[in-house]
Design brief:
Number of strands: 15
Helix content: 40-55%
Strand content: 15-25%
Number of helices: 25
Largest sheet: 8 strands, mixed
CATH architecture of one domain: 3-Layer(aba) Sandwich
Structural class: alpha/beta
Distance between the termini: 67 Å
Low-confidence stretches: 168-178, 267-285
CATH topology of one domain: Rossmann fold
Mean pLDDT: 82
Length: 579
């Protein structure tokens, strides 16, 4: 057996069973399978039937072994999952007050060197309250305490501590023969905007004056200070406090403060900290709300609502497997712009269930049927649709099947068009997946399982950093910890069900739908970054040239991660078109 064949067989087995050698395996497969392609080009080279029987046997055998071993359970604790999704600086500590983990926002806030709780919590009052919570009341699972962990900081925040249970991971060591509890700690800003004060007012049937007084109390002001600030008598403030106590069933001022702090904490963190997939139709309006519906065939479909819940509806269709969730600034802007961004998770992504037999066009049509049913359950007659990368394929098909339900079509970072000649101009990692899909489809399932194994080992962030490495704009975007953390979260959560949906969509992504686009009632408005190296802007230009009526806006200084880095352009373009 030749050295090359030995290397190839070794790479086939190690790809999915040795995640630590993931990229080495991909490089070997790339070199040994596709070295001829660079000479003749992807549009003319085809070796689908040139894989000999022995190599095919090893590919099948590796797939069988991978399937029998199954996907290992994610070893992240509930506390760590909370940590990843927390929108503010957050920590995990144990009963011995050891800081066992922190998120990127905590590191950037200057807590990187903290090893024990007292290192980062210099407010003696807050520290004592946390200690009391940990050691005195074992039945209490939540602490909400006004203040900031740094003594010198303003009190217009509160500390949010949740007991997350016991952990058998290495940092969940035994104490007196028992596993230690772990605790999740984060800081929540108590800034109340109009929507939150209205919600507090409605929930407890308070007057506007009573809401103002309650918020001032939670901000640390004393009664005389509140009277001065509101330009009323002290007796008036005391009368309003009595009314607040009665309406909120609060015993004293401390109870009012805790109620307001908890109310704010719940609004700001409930969608990020929730670990359940339950339908949440009773929750108050938020910037981001995770919901779920049951479809007519019994499947569950998850979706995310962002922005203004009463605004103009826009379906935002994610790519593989990210783009559903906006960064906080974009969600806030969507609310100001009166946009209701609805991001459905396609079958097989996140917690949306799929049919195993749905492939190709059947899968596309199932996605569109699901979205049509979602709109029906939400009582939405007409919607604008914005698709990211692979998303425009589904936007196009939906507009084809249900033209009267669509007002506008937007394509972000890609159009539903494909030419094999584009493969050669694609960055190395994406190019390999494309060549495997086109030339050696027998290998695709195995490579995707290898990718999943690599991500499951905690390498999601490294994966998309490698994928975006060719674009200066994208690498700049990924230096923003919020963007990086959000993408990592979506990589992990989006692929919870496995790789089946990802497999379908990679295949679909290499089909040309431009002919179907010619017959659409609505034409795409395309937004594409000029530094997009994954899908060059020239590809969108080719679609515009082919499909009359299509418009293209090239966003300067943006890469493939346009939806994250240049969300202002995206939202403004959508708003402008919607009028």
């Amino acid at each position: 057996m030749s050295v090359d064949r030995e290397k190839l067989i070794s790479a086939v087995y190690s790809a999915s069973m040795s995640p630590e050698f993931y990229y080495e395996s991909l490089d070997a497969i790339d070199t040994l399978f596709f070295e001829q392609v660079s000479n003749v080009g992807d549009s003319t080279f085809n070796n689908k039937h040139n894989i000999d029987r022995e190599i095919l046997h090893h590919i099948r055998r590796s797939n069988e072994i991978s399937d029998r071993l199954g996907r290992p359970k994610l070893d992240k604790s509930r506390a760590e999952l909370l940590l990843e999704t927390a929108p503010n600086p957050a920590f995990i500590f144990d009963q011995s007050e050891n800081i066992v983990a922190m998120n990127d926002m905590a590191r950037l806030a200057g807590f990187r060197s903290c090893q024990v709780l007292s290192n980062c919590c210099t407010s003696e009052h807050v520290l004592m309250r946390i200690r009391d919570f940990v050691f005195r009341n074992d039945s209490q699972k939540l602490l909400i305490e006004p203040g900031y962990i740094n003594a010198e900081k303003n009190i217009n925040t509160c500390i949010f501590v949740r007991r997350t249970g016991k952990n058998s991971k290495p940092h969940g060591e035994k104490q007196d023969g028992h596993l230690r509890h772990q605790y999740f700690l984060t800081m929540v800003n108590l800034g109340f905007d109009q929507s939150k004060t209205e919600l507090l007012k409605e929930t407890y049937e308070l007057t506007q004056a009573e809401v103002d007084v309650a918020v001032h109390l939670a901000s640390g002001l004393q009664i005389p200070e509140i009277a001065t600030k509101r330009n009323v008598k002290v007796e008036t403030v005391r009368f309003q406090i009595k009314a607040i106590k009665r309406k909120t069933n609060s015993r004293d001022l401390s109870s009012i403060v805790r109620l307001v702090c908890g109310f704010s904490a719940g609004i700001l963190t409930s969608s990020q900290l929730s670990t359940s997939g339950r339908e949440n139709t009773e929750q108050a309006p938020q910037l981001k709300i995770q919901k779920q519906i049951t479809l007519s065939d019994g499947r569950k479909m998850s979706y995310l609502e962002q922005g203004d819940p009463e605004g103009i509806p826009v379906l935002l269709l994610h790519t593989i497997p990210y783009g559903a969730e906006l960064i906080k600034g974009a969600a806030e802007a969507a609310k100001r712009m009166n946009l209701r961004i609805i991001s459905p998770y396609r079958p097989g992504y996140g917690r949306s269930e799929t049919h195993k037999d749905a492939k190709g066009d059947a899968y596309i049509n199932m996605v569109c049927t699901d979205m049509h049913e979602l709109l029906g359950q939400l009582n939405i007659d007409q919607v604008a649709i914005a698709g990211i990368a692979i998303g425009p394929v589904y936007a196009m098909r939906f507009a084809h099947l249900y033209p009267d339900r669509v007002s506008h079509l937007f394509a972000i970072s890609r159009t539903p068009m494909w030419k094999d000649e584009w493969i050669a101009k694609t960055p190395k990692r994406q190019r390999l997946f494309m060549r495997i899909t086109r030339h050696t489809p027998q290998l695709l399932s195995l490579i995707l399982k290898a990718t999943m194994a690599y991500i499951d080992k905690g390498h999601a962030k490294h994966s998309f950093n490698v994928a975006c490495a060719d674009s200066t704009a994208d690498m700049s975007a990924l230096r923003n910890p919020e963007i990086s953390s959000l993408m990592e979260k979506e990589f992990v959560e989006g692929l919870i069900p496995g790789v089946d949906a990802m497999h379908h969509e990679i295949v679909l992504g290499m089909k040309d739908y431009s002919q179907e686009a010619l017959g659409l009632k609505h034409k795409f408005y395309v937004l594409h970054g000029d530094d997009d190296k994954v899908f060059n802007v020239s590809q969108s230009q080719a679609f515009v040239d082919y499909v009359p009526g299509t418009e293209l806006e090239v966003v300067k200084g943006a890469g493939h991660l346009l939806i994250y880095s240049h969300w202002k352009y995206v939202l403004q373009a959508i708003k402008k078109k919607l009028g």
